[in-house]
Each structure stands twice: as structure tokens, then as C-alpha cells.
Amino acid sequence: MQSPSSTHPRRRRLRRATAVLAAAATLAALSGCSAGDDGQVTLNFFQFKPEAVGNFTAIIKDFEAQNPGIRVIQNSVPDPDTAIRTLLVKDKVPDVLTLNANGNYGELARACIFADLADEQVTTTVNPAVQDIVQALGTCSADGADEVNALPFASNASGILYNPEIFAANGVDVPTTWSELIAAADTFQANGVTPFFCTLKDAWTASPAFVNLGGTLMPDGFFDALRAEGSEVSGGAVSFENDFADAAAKEVELFSYCQDNFASRDYNSGNKAFADGESAMYLQGSYAIPAIRANNPDAAIGSFPYPVTDDADSRVVVSGVDVGIAIGRNTPHPVEAQKFVDYLMSPDVVTAYSEAQSTFSPLADATPNSDPALAGLEPYFSAGKIIGFIDHQIPAAVPLVNMLQSLVITGNTEAFLEDLDSEWSKVAARTTTQRQGK
């Protein structure tokens, strides 16, 4: 029930006006970039993670102490995707940016918004398997060659989190195959323990399982072949209906082991429930660990890669670049911007951030993160046995998370796969029409 004050029209208008003014002030700050009368250069640093503002504040302080001629202004906004696109419309790209390396980043990279870092020395320090994930999202090819438009600063890993204490109490070993995973879920259920705490009130929380299942089971080159088919997906050589039936069925099977109220629980309640030991496992990746510990600093957390098949050797870890670093293509201060990026990518800075945020270092010679919650995923990451998030390959116009939400609630795999092919075809048709119209 809403309070009277929340429904009063005047107060609503005031709040909207305040929000607009705040957004305008933020964008104004983001667009400013100058060299002062004292010769000091000011860099605008677009930083998209609100939970990491304190980390970057400390990094900037240390950088400025070592580089007194450069001032860095950190700008963190509530809706970074909207903010960055607003700045692009105004032709005011920040000097240095952090962005989540996802499909939205790929679109911006292909539009040649970011500088090419291919020839920078710092680029050679990155784990090639991690850089490949960034490159696969999209690059600028202004001169006919693929550029390096962002460097990975922090990576996450999407596995299954589990409670080691609950596993031990029920005599269950960490599963290495699909059959063992289902057997573990059956054991917990028989013992009155919730196998998975699920949070389908937030539709996106069905995605982590799907990207692991689909990413492992799909044919090599699936998305390249799908894009080549254009809008004629039905009856094509590859399609979701033909190639994702096993993944969809396994998605439904996993969610059949959720608690009864899973459709009305959200991500925040899931983090708290797992922190409080209310389930044996949690279908979320490393990115959830800080939030779980915020609820219970002493939470028992372990991790393991999804055992998608009955071949234990086929296990891989789905990994995304949680934070990528880019430089605006037309920054008036390229030397200073590159100096700041070089500092951000230095081993000490990357390691400190990884430990604070429970992420994986993307550097080739990095010391593995010693967080025990990551111990089950770290060897795969360090060995390069990783694949990217397949949902980053699916256009944002395809309502994937809502379709996955319906899939796991209804169990109707046929309708899900048919709808996914249909939605992909619609977007492909629009894209082809737009290109022909140019």
C-alpha cells in the first residue's frame, strides 16, 4: 500500500523535476573536460558500477598523487546505458569509461565510439582468452581491421554457488556431471532441504542457468551461422528450435527443484536466503558473492562449474567481462587518458579490485584470486577454459529474460524455442531493412 505522500500529484511532479535536474547536472559534469589555467588536465571518468565508487575513488586518489598534472573526475550514474547514449547524441563521449562488456558495449564498439588500443603496450598484458570474449562482442573496423576498443579490467564467472556445510551434512559431494547434479538435488529434496533458491520475480535470474546450458550444448559457430541466415531462421541450417531443445529441457528440470514460492521471490531476497543457509545451491555466479556477504559476512559459500553433460571433462566456465575499460575515440587528452588506463590496468590495481569485488583478474600473469568462494571456478578461468555469455549475442530487442521466465514457470519448451526463433527473425528483418535503407 502506498503512503498518501507518494501519490500526491504535486509531490510526484517535484520528485520528477528533481530527478531531471540531477540527471542534467550529472550529464553536464560528464561532458566537461578541460586543461586549466595551471596546466592541469581534467579527465572525465564514466564509471558505471555504483557499488565500486569507493574502490575507484581510492584508485583515483593514488593516481593523482603520482600524476599531479592530471585530475580525474569520477561520474557514476543510476542508469549508465541511458546516460552514455544521451552523451553520444550530444557528441560528448567521456575521456575514459568503464562499461559492462555486453551486447550494448558491442553496439557502441561497432559504431567506432572508442579509441583503438591494439598498439598499446598494456594490451599485451591481458589474458588472450579473456580479450577474445570482448572482441567477440563487436569491434570498430574503420580501416578494415578489427580494433581493440576495450580492455578487460575485471571478469566474473557464472557457475553454481553452494553451501559446503549443507553438502557435508547431507553426505553430498560436489557434482561433476549432469547425472550427479540431479542426484544431489534429489538427495537434498528427500532430506527436506531446498536444492536451489530461485528468484523469478526478477526475470533475468533465469538467464545464468540458460547461458551455461546453451553455451555448452550449442554447436560451434552457432550465432555466426544464425546471423548469416538473416530473417530466414525457420528451416535454416541452425535455429534455436533445432539446437537448443536439450538446453531448454534441462533449464526446466533445474527449476523444478526450486522452493515453492520461487515466482514471487526477487534477487535481493535470494541473496539473503542463500546467505542464511536456506538452500543447498544458488543458480548465480561470482557477481552475487559480495551481495550475499553483505547479508552475512560469514556465509558458507563454495562454487563449481555447471556440469551440463555426463562428460566431466567437457565442463567450462561461462565468463563475462564485468568491467571493461575504454577511451573515448576523440578525447582531447589521449596521452593523459592512456596514462590513466595504464595505471588502472597495472597488476597491483587490478588485483586489489578483484579481491575487493570477488572478481577474476584478466591479466595473463595474474595471481589467482584466493577467495575460497571462487576456488571451484578459478582453475577453469586461469586455464582459459571459459566461454562468453551467449545472451550477449542476442539482440536487446529480443525479450529473452521474459521468455525464460515464462519457460521455467510453464515448462513449455516448444513454445519458448519457437518464440525465440520468431523474435530473432523479426529483429534480423528490421536490421536488414535498416541497412538497405542507408
TrEMBL record:
The lineage of its organism: Bacteria, Bacillati, Actinomycetota, Actinomycetes, Micrococcales. The keyword Signal applies. Keywords: Signal. This is Sugar ABC transporter substrate-binding protein. The keyword Transit peptide does not apply. Gene3D superfamilies: Periplasmic binding protein-like II (3.40.190.10). Residues 1-35 form the signal peptide. It comes from the Bacteria.
